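Re: the request from the purification team.
They wanted to know what the chain is likely to look like in 3D before they choose a buffer screen. I agreed to run a prediction and write the result into the notebook, where they can find it.
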Amino acid sequence: VSGCQETADGVTMRHPDNCNKFIVCLHGAAIVQDCGLGQHFSPSKGVCDFPENAGCDLSSSGRY
C-alpha cells in the first residue's frame, strides 16, 4: 500500500482493495487500520461508518 510519501501526517484515505480498512499516513508511511465490525471507511467523512452511509467505491479515488 502506498500513497503517503509526500502526504501530511494524519491524512486518511480508503484502502485500495477493502472497504473495511483504511490508511493513515504517518511520516511518509501508510499505516493500514481496520474499521469496526460491520463498518466501511467513508472517504468523504474520513471515518468508518455503516456501509449504507459510507458509500465505499473501490473504483474511485480514496483521498479526501
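For the purification team: The chain has a mean pLDDT of 88.
Please add any questions underneath this entry.
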